[in-house]
Amino acid sequence: MDFNAMRKLFPVTENYIFLNNAAESPLNLKVRSKIDEYLDLVLNAPQTKPSVRYQVRQLLSDLLGGRADEYALMTSTGMGVSIVAAGYNWNKGDNVVVPSNEHWNNSFPWKALKRKGVDVRFVPLNENNRILPEAVAALTDKNTKVVAVAAVSFSTGFRSDLKKISEIAHNNGAIFIVDGIQGAGAVPINVETDCIDVLCCAGFKWLLGMPGTGFLYVNKNIQELINPMLPGMFAADLYSKELQYYPDARRYETGSIAYSLFHGWSAGLELLKEIGIENIYERILLLTDRIISGLQEKNIKIITPVEAITERSGIILFTLGSEQANKVIYEKLLKRNIIVTLRDGVIRVSPSFYNTEEEIDTFLNTL
């Protein structure tokens, strides 16, 4: 795979060393061209604009597994999680099991259920910032209705063992829900082989879309357990006087979406399909290996668990020992047009497939 050729699709590389893909993927030329194509159509011949709903669902199915009709188009991760949390028939005494360091989009919807008498149980991280399956199992019982976890933690970069956690959930009769935003597009995820019941994700990070794009995957076998909460014209049969939901995941959709953005996103998904997620992950591992080795040589403390390859993602967090020291180096990097994230007082770096070894070396030398 010629990653240098792919690099030319990302104009941000002309001015910056962009190592902040966990925050937002920079717009690439293929997506920009598709958005422009859509805008030209609606400017000059709006009646000819294409329908993108099926195409995006099919591309998501190709990349992440499952059937196209098990995907509903959403605007964000939080919207998908919230629809599931609100649509399940909860009873007082039910519980949800979720790691303690989840992103707000995968914690606020569950916390809101406390008013219904649902017990929200938070799994602690171990001393090495890992989410251990046995810690999940310790809080899961016959009253657990949902086990929810991020594929990759935004705050540690830890990649969870989805298959093991899904077994824990299913052995207790619970639904297994995954927040995929920091994993999908960067690490291999397959809803079938990982036994995922629900996958929620936005498109603007590793999936090469823009804010306002996303999806909710719901396995066909559990769709009857989750009631549609925002019914609109794209959720049901328009030719019936009654509200008859579609017999697939479209039931969770509502009204019009930002079609220009979804049309553009289709080009990002096609690019990922062309490269292959396995190839992308291999490239990301090569770059993060270089970061890890460089940090270790400088005796800089790495916060992300990096010992096991199966726990690795595209995210590395580290600290120079204090929040002030991290702020100083963050500002130094920024002045040299090296873009990373300063989050909760530590530095997060997240390269993607279009980054180069030379960029990583420049970043490390700046430290």
Task: Fill in the keyword field for this structure.
single chain, 367 residues, alpha/beta, Aspartate Aminotransferase, domain 1, Aspartate Aminotransferase, domain 2, 2 domains, 11 helices, 14% strand
Strand order, largest beta sheet:
2-8-7-6-5-3-4
Report the CATH topology name of the largest domain.
Aspartate Aminotransferase, domain 2
Based on the coordinates given, report the CATH architecture of the largest domain.
Answer: 3-Layer(aba) Sandwich
Mean pLDDT: 97
> Structural class per helix/strand content?
alpha/beta
Can you identify the CATH class of the largest domain? Alpha Beta
Task: Specify the overall morphology.
Answer: globular
SSE blueprint:
Elements: H1 3-7, E1 17-18, H2 29-44, H3 53-64, E2 71-74, H4 77-87, E3 95-99, H5 108-111, E4 119-123, H6 133-139, E5 144-150, H7 162-171, E6 175-179, E7 198-202, E8 214-218, H8 259-275, H9 277-297, E9 301-302, E10 316-319, H10 323-335, E11 338-339, E12 341-343, E13 346-349, H11 357-366
Parallel strand pairs: 1-11, 3-4, 3-5, 5-6, 6-7
Antiparallel strand pairs: 2-8, 7-8, 9-10, 10-13, 12-13
Helix pairs in contact: 2-8, 3-8, 9-11
Any overview of this molecule?
- This protein has helices at 3-7, 29-44, 53-64, 77-87, 108-111, 133-139, 162-171, 259-275, 277-297, 323-335, 357-366; strands spanning 17-18, 71-74, 95-99, 119-123, 144-150, 175-179, 198-202, 214-218, 301-302, 316-319, 338-339, 341-343, 346-349.
- The radius of gyration is 21 Å and the shape is globular.
- It has two domains: 3-19 and 276-366, Alpha-Beta Complex (Aspartate Aminotransferase, domain 1); 33-273, 3-Layer(aba) Sandwich (Aspartate Aminotransferase, domain 2).
- The protein is of the alpha/beta class.
- The chain contains eleven helices and 13 strands.
- Strands 2-8-7-6-5-3-4 form a seven-stranded mixed β-sheet, sandwiched between helices. It has a four-stranded antiparallel β-sheet with strand order 9-10-13-12, covered by helices on one side.
- Helix 2 packs antiparallel against helix 8 (259-275).
